[in-house]
Specification:
With 107 residues, the chain is α+β, with helices and mostly antiparallel strands. It contains 4 helices and 3 strands.
């Protein structure tokens, strides 16, 4: 995959580089007007709470377009790298994603 194919970042000069965050946990919510995704860090100990680090809010139309573009990017990566990124059934269950919900996203 070429560098241009890996990113849909706009082609312009940044006055300051964007902040970068790492996340291994997320929460999402939707209202009639917008969607919100909060990214955070999973804590190591059972007595520790996960730590939110950044929240992104967007109109529902943008959230839907983003979900389609992310799916397309992951599918392109899987096809070009000849790999399949599996999601554990426990993860899908914990997120409330049924097998019927997941079917459209399988190749």
């Amino acid at each position: 995959m070429s560098k241009d194919q890996q990113s849909n970042e706009p082609k312009f000069s940044w006055s300051q580089p964007p902040q970068e965050f790492f996340s291994d946990v997320f929460w999402n919510s939707v209202s009639p007007w917008s969607a919100s995704i909060t990214f955070g860090l999973r804590m190591a100990g059972p007595s520790e709470q996960d730590t939110p680090t950044v929240r992104i809010r967007m109109p529902l139309q943008q959230a839907k377009a983003l979900s389609i573009l992310l799916l397309r990017a992951v599918r392109t990566y899987e096809n070009e790298a000849n790999v399949t990124i599996e999601l554990p059934h426990d993860l899908l269950n914990n997120l409330g994603i049924s097998p019927d919900d997941w079917k459209p996203f399988n190749k």
